[in-house]
Amino acid sequence: MNRGPLLFLGLFAAFASAFAGLILAPQLQIGRQAARVIESTDQLYPTKRPGQAAQGLEVYRSLGCAECHSQQVRGYGGDLDRGWGKRISVAQDFLYDSPVMLGSLRAGPDLANVGARKPDATWHLLHLYNPKVTVPGSPMPRYPFLFEKRKLRPGQPGSPEALPVKELKGTEGEETYEIIPKPSATALVAYLLNLQAEISLFEAPIPLPKTNAPLADASATNAGSATNIPAASVTDTNAATSAPPPAPVK
Amino acid sequence: MSVPDPSTVASPPPATRPDPVPRDAAAEIDASCRWPLLLLWIGALKWLALGTVLSLLANIKFHSPDFLADCSWLTYGRVRPAALNALLYGFASPAGIGVLLWMLSRLGGVRLNYQVPIFTSALVWNFGVLIGVLGILGGDTTGFEWLEMPGYASPILFVAFLLLTLCALVNFHYRAERSLYVSQWYLLAAVFCFPWIYSAANYLLVFDPVRGTLQAAIAAWFGNNLLGLWLTPIGLAAIFYFIPKLTGRPLYNYWLAVFGFWTLVVFTNWSGLTPLIGGPVPRWMPSTSVVANLLLVVPLVAVALNWHLTAKGELHKARNDLVLRFVLAGAACYLLAGLLGILLGLREVSGVTQFTFVPVARTQLALHGFIGLTLFGCLYHILPRVTGIEWPSARLIRIHFWASIGGVGLMFLALTIGGVLQGFRMKNPNAEFVPIARSLIPFVGNATIGWVALLAGQVALGGNLFGLLRRYCEKSCPVCEWLKCCGKSAAGRNP
Fold it and tell me: Domain B19-473: what homologous superfamily?
């Protein structure tokens, strides 16, 4: 190994082959994936995030939310049972996101389906302003810089968009304050509410729930069928290879 | 430039001793490295201190979330990546480049020329890191782990790197000693790796992003290679250099080193996608990397055997030789971090440790244990040689060593134990989430103590370096020396 050129060629071969295998081949397989019509609902999935939610993704990136929150539901490890998602996350869910922030640490809960789990915008705003108000004991930091603290004149009625919690409207001495979310806060909340993976896909069907509790929206159409595959999808044999095993019905 | 002697080119014997240069020539080469190394290392140490302070801040913010919460520039999600980038690009990379320049010159038996371009690019690099870290704190992060620096900072780093390595490679080309020692292969692999992965990842993620979860795959590939094929080869080069040199024994087996080198390069390249296990990508992608990651046990054993059989019976020298002590500790951390990396890539283990603090602990062990300790060993060995001044205090070196060992050990143990507990608790879907998240706090608190210890060690290093530089300035005027040095370099003649 005394020849520079030989070393160079060997290194080139090693790097190029791995690059072809790990980056180029996936690009050929999923790089041109597009939104597709879901047969059971006749709707395109996914759709682009609406303007405010798209801005919210930028806030999410900028604040580094992904340092503590993942956005991927796995088929094991308690993710589904914990209720973080109705089905596993698949590539189809992320087509219009850039950057895609799957996250690598769960110091906070997974957010892949947070819009469906917590559909209340006010809850999210309060949570961002002071997480301990909505989730007692939460170790999440506050984001007061996403809000404006506005002084109220005596007798002036509060703004409609102000946070609706008495102790936050609080008085300091004679003066009354209200907390108004800045545009970045409303955008971030719009994005969080838009984080929904509720549509059953062929490669990621929504499994049957464990309990006999009444089912919500999308999965309700499948509740009566014997399999956990949406009616639009193909046969049982195909499903058995691609789908996680259906949860046993108690 | 000198023309290589044809007789040595014909069939040089495999080099198993890292010391081909006679003593007086070596002194000349060392002196030629003085200014580039001082500039690169002082810049690197500045970022090391800053990165450590930022890491400390991020850690404190984790267990006391209200600390400095009112400022968007200091929110946890920005401080943590800023700290990591300062350590990766501000400290480890330029310090590694310094080692690379010195080692390539020394092993090639050639003085380091092109001082002015090296100087310029080192300054540009530091400027790029500054812009990048400020960009992250200001909210312009790209959102990709280890590649957070915004698109207006990364080209600066890239250009500076190309210029630096161009100088290193041209200088390497004109080397007097033609046969290559193991360390040189690793250094060349590192030089080959960085421009490839940095340009590809920035292009495909920031400038012309690919679609969907492929982005996550590229980011994972980049992060794996940045640690595994840019920083790791520099550390391994240093260990392969210092173990034979300081124990006074030739490398145990040349062909074992060749085997270890190529298996490491190939398997590390393919092992990048293990973080995507269970993730929203086609199954075969992480599976391929799981296999390659498991195969990394082959180079790990090859390298460990070679080190062990080289140093066998000579380890007592580490009692008095502080450089050897740093390097051996770095080597031990490499083996431990490597083994842990292999374990974390197994699906069964990943089922518990994914999304916990265990991978973080492993990264810290690799970065501060393996890379950090090895680079400090290099620094303690090389700086007295290039300046001609001994370290003022051996005691401060000892303090630095034990503080680093204690800090890394505490941080690693705390985060690993906390992470494993977190992983097992998360597997139980009926366990409330908030108590699990809160249960991490004491472990992160212990890691904070580890960071304080690391910082204390760095202060000891800084004091020692300050003393060394003051003695140097008392001996000779640095400005005149530097001008003389640049003049020699401009003449561009090798001895």
Answer: Cytochrome c oxidase-like, subunit I domain (1.20.210.10)
Specify whether the CB–CB gap between A119 and A193 falls below 8 A: yes
Structure-derived torsion over alpha carbons of residues B324, B230, B305, B323, reported in degrees to the nearest 10? 0
Phi, psi of B172 (to 5 degrees): -65, -40
Neighbouring residues of B432: CB distance < 8 A, sequence distance ≥ 6: none
Distance CA B38, CA B259 (A): 35
Q: Which of B198, B204, B108, B103 is nearest to B153 (CA)?
A: B198
Contact B435, B421 (CB under 8 A): no
How far is B453 from B369, CA to CA, in rounded Å? 13
pLDDT per position as a tens digit, A35-81: 999 888 888 989 999 999 999 999 999 999 999 999 999 998 889 99
Rg (CA), chain A: 23
Beta bridge partners of A171: A176
Q: Which of A227, A205, A223, A226 is nearest to A215 (CA)?
A: A223
Chain B residues 5-44 within an 8 A CB cutoff of chain A? 12, 14-15
DSSP state of A157: P
| Token pair recorded at residue B378 | 């290099």
Q: Is B62 on the interface with A (CB under 8 A)?
A: yes
Residue B330 exposed, middle or buried by CB count within 10 Å (0-12, 13-18, 19+)? buried
A63, B75 contact by CB (below 8 A) = yes
Rounded to 10 degrees, the C-alpha dihedral B105/B108/B109/B113 comes to -40
A63 in Cβ contact with B78 (< 8 Å)? yes
Please state, in angstroms and rounded to a whole number, the distance separating the CA atoms of residues A215 and B183.
63
Strands (E) across A47-190 are located at 147-152, 171-172, 175-181
| Rounded Cα gap, residues A135 and A60, in angstroms | 20
- Sort out which chain B residues have CB atoms less than 8 A from A143's CB and list them: 69, 75
Mean pLDDT over each residue of chain B, to the nearest integer: 92
Give me the phi and psi of A43, to 5 degrees please: -115, 155
Distance CA B187, CA B236 (A): 9
The alpha helices in chain A, defined as continuous H runs, are 4-19, 25-30, 51-62, 114-117, 121-129, 131-134, 166-169, 183-194, 217-220, 236-242
Q: How confident is the model at residue A247 (pLDDT cuts 50, 70, 90)?
A: very low
| Total Cβ atoms within 10 A of residue B423 | 22
Name the least confident of A233-237, B25-29, B245-249. Answer: A233-237
Residues 149-178 of B with CB under 8 A from A: 172-173, 178
Residues of B within 8 A of A64 (CB-CB) are 75-78, 80-81, 141
Q: Residue B308 in contact with residue B318, Cβ under 8 Å? A: no
SS3 B210: coil
* DSSP code per residue over B385-416: HHHS---S-HHHHHHHHHHHHHHHHHHHHHHH
